[in-house]
Specification:
The complex is a heterodimer of chains A (about 110) and B (about 475). Chain A is α+β, with helices and mostly antiparallel strands and about 110 residues long. Chain A is about 55% helix and about 15% strand. Chain B contains 16 helices and 10 strands. Classes of the chains: A alpha+beta (about 110), B alpha+beta (about 475). The interface between A and B is medium-sized, with 25 and 31 residues.
């Protein structure tokens, strides 16, 4: 489970925002979805996930609401706010810039 | 908009801490159970599923703590905790707290009072427009054994200089005088100045009411007019609005009141002239000098005091050079025994502040050191106490308190001490200042009566309602006793 800590600082935020742009979901589903989409490479541990979710919520990029889960239990569902959507766009852009740059260096040398 | 939302959420989780924590543990529990279900669906036995999920999940407490920190309100709670704890310790060690606060408060109080004094005397400008451009003009004569500033321009020299010089934007001359003023039941001796039409303009002041002395008032025959001070207006006429056109009897002659000067204006004060009339504390009346043509032509006779305002782009040295040239020409017109007249342009501020400036800075430096010593003493006391607290800190460190956290607690305590000392210091400064003013008011009664008060900026300001003049006198008092 150390894979999550290998994530670059701020990358988890980007992943959360991106996955939430698909629609509201609770924390467990979010972790599952990231794992599936990364083909089992990125396993987000709860000890990193929930602090990140709470931080994003307190920064008002995302908002939370209690609802009913797929197994009929009370769960906290997170969704993107309008500000969060704008934030996601700019984060994606800067990520693209960064990864292109790193790729460039790796290929050149 | 987002900032408001963010602020709202932070304050909500700060104020409703318990319900936030309950929600958090419910959320984490849901995650764990959902994982157990998933594991069972994968074909594990319920016990195995639970154990695997737990192992994967890690410590719930740690997760909860991290979430709590992520909310960004933890530091407020830490602060509240530190303040509470600090207050308890400070109250418990009363004598230590008292001595430390008193030491610092005395230092701060002394520093504040002296700064107020320096601020009033040296840093604040005088109520005469740009007072740094004001200069006195003298004509010292090395042949006489008289101080340079005791010899003013003679009338004829003044008018010639005014016509020939280009350094001065305005030039005025005046003479001090005293008059007997008849009030209802008695006679009062009042300080006055006989001035020309440029006098008020040179000082860049304007009357509060009515007008100042004009050109027309200088004609002999129409010169029975007077401008009075604010204080006189208040004391004699009760500040009534229809003061203009009333008459004052000065030395038995009626004068028509044409204007009232503003509250701050009392030029020349006793301290404004190096060799002025010692009986005049503050000038209360301004009358036209109304020189006759014969008086205007006095070359070697007594003259008045000349005050001028340098043009904005003219320096003191340039003015001095020009005046020297002109005076060496005019010197030829003087009678034999007066030959050798030279010129001196002296900044007004030097005359006014000259005697006290060095003393003021000395005082400021002295109280600066007093404050430093007080700080050193306080630091010593704190160090001595820290030695006694090694055990307490050791226990906290062993229990897992981080270095930064301990440091923050110490800082909070010190800040509380210094804040208390600051407040006590302000109180002391207020007291000192009033004592100082009372002391100087006794010695300089005319100034003691006046109390204007302006709100001021800077750290010494808001509890300081004393008049500039009273403070200047306080400074002079200190100077005298020195």
């Amino acid at each position: 489970m150390t894979k999550s800590t290998e994530l670059l600082q701020g990358t988890l935020d980007l992943l959360i925002l991106k996955v939430l742009s698909l629609g509201p979901m609770h924390g467990w589903a979010l972790a599952q979805r990231i794992r599936q989409l990364s083909e089992d490479v990125l396993r987000v541990n709860q000890s990193a996930l929930y602090p990140a979710l709470h931080r994003l919520e307190h920064q008002a990029w995302i908002e939370a609401e209690w609802g009913e889960s797929e197994n009929n239990r009370r769960a906290k569902f997170y969704s993107l706010t309008k500000a969060g959507r704008t934030r996601l766009e700019s984060e994606e852009k800067s990520w693209d810039r960064l990864s292109t740059a790193v790729q460039g260096v790796l290929k050149a040398v | 908009m987002r900032l408001f939302q963010s602020l709202f959420r932070r304050s909500r989780s700060f104020l409703k801490k318990d319900s936030s924590n309950v929600e958090l543990s419910e959320e984490l529990k849901f995650h764990l159970e959902r994982q157990v279900e998933e594991n069972i669906a994968k074909g594990m036995s319920p016990e195995q599923a639970r154990a695997t999920a737990r192992a994967e999940f890690g410590s719930i407490t740690q997760a909860a703590e991290k979430c709590y920190e992520a909310r960004g309100v933890a530091w407020i709670e830490d602060l509240v905790q530190d303040v509470r704890y600090g207050l308890r310790t400070l109250v418990k060690h009363r004598s230590f707290t008292f001595v430390t606060v008193l030491t610092l408060a005395l230092g701060i109080g002394a520093c504040t009072v002296i700064f107020s004094l320096v601020n009033a005397v040296l840093l604040r400008s005088l109520p005469y427009g740009e007072s740094e451009k004001l200069v006195y003009l003298f004509t010292p004569n090395p042949h006489f054994d008289i101080p340079a500033e005791a010899i003013g321009l003679s009338n004829a020299d003044f008018f010639d200089l005014k016509a020939q010089s280009h350094s001065f934007a305005e030039m005025a001359h005046f003479e001090q005088a005293t008059y007997n003023l008849a009030t209802d039941d008695r006679l009062e001796r009042i300080g006055a100045a006989k001035v020309d039409a440029d006098f008020v303009k040179t000082l860049q002041s304007t009357p509060e009411l009515g007008r100042d002395i004009g050109k027309a008032d200088e004609q002999p025959g129409s010169d029975r007019v007077v401008v009075i001070s604010h204080a006189l207006w208040q004391s004699m006429f009760g500040g009534s609005a229809n003061i203009l056109d009333r008459t004052l009897r000065l030395d038995g002659t009626p004068y028509q009141v044409v204007g009232v000067m503003p509250r701050d204006f009392g030029f020349p004060h006793k301290s404004d002239l190096a060799y002025g009339n010692g009986h005049i504390e503050t000038t209360q009346l301004w009358l036209p000098s109304a020189l006759t043509p014969q008086q205007m032509s006095y070359r070697d006779g007594p003259g008045g005091v000349a005050i001028a305002r340098l043009k904005p782009d003219v320096t003191l040295q340039e003015a001095q050079a020009e005046m020297s040239t002109i005076m060496s020409r005019l010197d030829l017109l003087h009678g034999g025994w007066m030959h050798g007249v030279t010129a001196l342009v002296k900044p007004f501020r030097d005359t006014v502040f000259g005697p006290v400036r060095a003393l003021m800075w000395l005082l400021m430096g002295a109280v600066g050191f007093v404050l430093l010593i007080a700080c050193g003493n306080a630091a010593n006391l704190l160090l001595a106490r820290a030695a006694n607290r090694i055990q307490e800190l050791g226990v906290r460190a062993t229990l897992g308190a981080r270095r930064g956290r301990l440091l923050r607690q110490m800082l909070t305590e010190s800040l509380m001490l210094s804040a208390a000392a600051g407040f006590a210091g302000i109180g002391l400064a207020y007291l000192f200042l009033h004592l100082l003013l009372k002391f100087s008011a006794k010695r300089y009664p005319a100034h003691g009566r006046r109390n204007t008060g302006h709100p001021r900026n800077g750290f010494s300001c808001f509890y300081y309602d004393a008049d500039r003049c009273s403070l200047r006198c306080a400074a002079l008092t200190l100077c005298d006793s020195h």
